Structures are given as C-alpha cells and as structure tokens.
Amino acid sequence: MIDLEMVTNQSGHDGLPATVNDQWNFLLSRFWNQMIHLVIRFDGHLDETRLGYAVEMATQAEPLVRMRFVEGDPPSFIPLKGDDLIFSLVKNEKPDEALREILARSLDPVAGPMAHIGLIRSDHDLLVLSANHSATDAYGVKALGSTIARLYRTGGHGSLPGRNPHNRSFTSLFRLFPDESREKAWKRFGEETVNWGLSDGTFRPCSPQYSVSIIPSGIVSAVKESAGSRGLTMNDVLLSSYIRSLIRLIPDTPAGDRAVLTTQDLRRYLPPDSLPGLANLSVAFEVPFRANRESSQGAVLGEVHQAMDERKRGHAGIGAAEGLCRSFSSGYSVVRQRLDELVRETRNDGLIRKPFFTNMGIIPESVLTFGLPDVTEAYMVPPLEYPPGLGVAASTSRGSLVLSSGYCGEPFPAVCVDRILEGMTEDLRLFISS
C-alpha cells in the first residue's frame, strides 16, 4: 500500500503538506460548513491591543493559521501573501446576535486564512476562535486558545512560543501498530455499513442555525459519579442519551441495526509531550445499536457501552485512519470524484446520513486563564450539518457541560433540535435518579 502519510512538500515553497485527513476535510468543506468554534464569555472587557498582540504571537507559533489550501499534486498549505485579517473587533449591544452571525460564517480554505479570532464587545466580551476543519480538529482550536490565553496573561513577557515540531499526520500513530493490526482494525471497524437517520429528501446549503444547552456542574458531577460506580464512561452516558432522544423523534424503521457516527481523537495514543497542535487527528466511526422506543435506558446504555468497549479494544479509530489512507492511495483526484458522485446521489435520490455525535472533551484551564477579566462560560460548537445530516457536540468547562448543534433551520426547525438537547438533559437526570 502507498503510504500517503509519508508524502513531503515538494512544491518548493515554505508551506506544509496536507495530510490525508486535511484533504478529506477540505473535500467535505466544499459541501458542508466545516467550521469549528471555541466560544469564551468574560465578565468584563479584555484589553484589545494586548489581545491583538497575543493573537499575532500565537499565529507565529502556529503558521498554519496564515495559510491557504492548494489542490496541487500533492495538496498542500501555502503562506498567504500580504496582510490577512486574523483578528477583528465587533461592537454590538446584542452579543448573542453577533455571535450567531460569526458562527454562520465560513472561512474559505482556498482563499485563507485557516482561522479567525473575533472579539464581540457589549457590556462584556465574547471571544470566538474559529477554524476551518481542513486545518485542524477541536483539539487544535483549544491548543490555539491556550497559547493566546498565556500570551495575553503574561503580556508577551517571558519566552515566546516556538513552532510545534510534532508530526501532524497519522505517521507517528501508525508506527505504534503493525501493518496487520491496522488492517484488522480497518476490516472490522473501518467501513460504514448502516443506513439510517433523518431525511427530508434534500441536500442543500441553508440558513444556519445553532442551539446551545448548558447543563449545570451539579448534574454533571452526579452523572460522572454514578457512571463510574457502574463501570460506564461519561461518553457512554452522553452517547446513549443522544440515541434515546433521536429514537423519540425519528419514526421507527424496519428491524435491524442502526448506528450513529462518533469521533475519536487519536492523540490518545501519543505521549503528552508529542502532541501536535493544529492538526487533524480525529476520525469517525459507527456505533451500532438495535434499541427502539420501548428500550429502557439501561438497555441502551448496555448496548452503547459494549459497542464502545469493543471499538476501544479493537482500535476502531486506527481502523478508520487506515481506511482513509487506503481511500487516498488511488489519488486525491479520484477521492474528489467519488465524493462528488456521492453528493449527486444524495441530492437526486434523497439518501440519508447517519446522525453524528462528537464529544469535544474538556476545555482545559489553560484556555480559560486570561487573568482579568474572569471567564464565565466556555464551550465548543461543531461544524454546521447541512440536511440530511444532524450533529450534536458536547464539551465541558469547569464542571459544566454544554451541548451544541449546528443545523439548517428549514428542514430541522429549532424546536426539533431543542427537543433533542432537552431530551438528552432529561435522560441525564433520569440516569442520576435510577
């Protein structure tokens, strides 16, 4: 098999090679709003000059921010020419309206830059870090936020951050797994097999909508404690609650396996001192289940826990990464053509897409420590799913859990998505009391 992850930049410019996961997310960005956001709310105002300096220094540590994607052979990122707007300040007495406008925008990876930092000022400040998924996953957005927070807090004093030297591709991960174990994981978990989900028979861009639900820290800590005592993970409980909420809204389908897609950050296999910042090391795989509306919470939890345990022990994430590399072994242009065909089939035949759940994890204290003013809330927002897709993300900050969703308002009205998020919250309360 051709090891595409070993491809180096041969174009002669001071750029970066695009990994297969970068290439895949770029291709998806041609059809979906592939933006990941980190939202941080403060109880006062930041010093905008100091923040601007922190952003400038942070982008020197992560030069990929100031690049653009080029569909060459092989695809790569190259530096932008001239001044590019990375940081902006917006004054608006209705900050949540301004936030929705920022969340609805999409950075064009072909034009660049790959990330933008927006400050919304009213009687308090909202900081929004936005990155195109072609360049990074959620971990990378948080890593960039951590660098900005440190530089703001110190005022740029002390040592400036150097460039992250760690490998952005799957190469360092694949070295940990023999060829035969990667192939085994790919054959077992690398292919999607189940077709089930929401569909209104359309596939099109639309008016972006976002829903956010904040779950208090008291509920979160009680769920974690109860999950631990039962041999479950927090992710098991969240994924189960998502499935149960979907089952209540989606009409029953013929008997058989159903599935949701979920993600795994493959940095989990790497030592803490070897983690790349802006990089795409998160992959997706199926989590099958057979539950229906009559299934108890315990039954769904059991199914989810067993499925996730099998995938952890079988290294499903490595299998997904192996499958992605195998897809691109025939060349970038071939994958581009195949995806175009799939999109046409979806549009013409009304194909459905599996619901998506991603746990974006904990927003670490390093992201939230700016000094003054204090942070009052922080959460992640996933890419906007165009119909017929629907996704929900979870992120945790200082003990509070936030569920968020980006979706199209026409086929999926806010009341529908809000019911899913409310159903998940109700399920968490039921879990505590059971």
Describe it.
This protein has 2 domains: 4-154, Chloramphenicol acetyltransferase-like domain (Chloramphenicol Acetyltransferase); 172-363 and 375-433, Chloramphenicol Acetyltransferase (2-Layer Sandwich), CATH 3.30.559.30. It is 38% helix and 21% strand. It is built from 13 helices and 14 strands. The protein has helices at 20-29, 48-61, 95-104, 138-154, 171-174, 179-189, 217-229, 234-249, 297-313, 316-328, 332-349, 365-368, 414-433; strands spanning 16-17, 35-42, 67-70, 76-79, 87-91, 115-121, 125-132, 208-215, 258-265, 282-289, 356-362, 375-381, 391-397, 400-408. The strands form 3 sheets. Strands 8-14-13-11-9-10 form a 6-stranded mixed beta sheet, sandwiched between helices. The longest helix has 20 residues, at 414-433. Residues 1-13 have low confidence and may be disordered.
Strand line-up of the largest beta sheet? 8-14-13-11-9-10
CATH architecture of the largest domain: 2-Layer Sandwich
Tell me the number of helical segments per DSSP (H or I, 4 or more residues long): 13
The description of the largest β-sheet is: 6 strands, mixed
The CATH topology of the largest domain, please? Chloramphenicol Acetyltransferase
Radius of gyration: 21 Å
Mean pLDDT rating = 88
Number of strands: 14
Which oligomerization state do the chains in this entry correspond to? single chain
Strand content: 15-25%
Features:
434 residues; alpha+beta; Chloramphenicol Acetyltransferase; 2 domains; five-stranded mixed β-sheet; 13 helices; globular
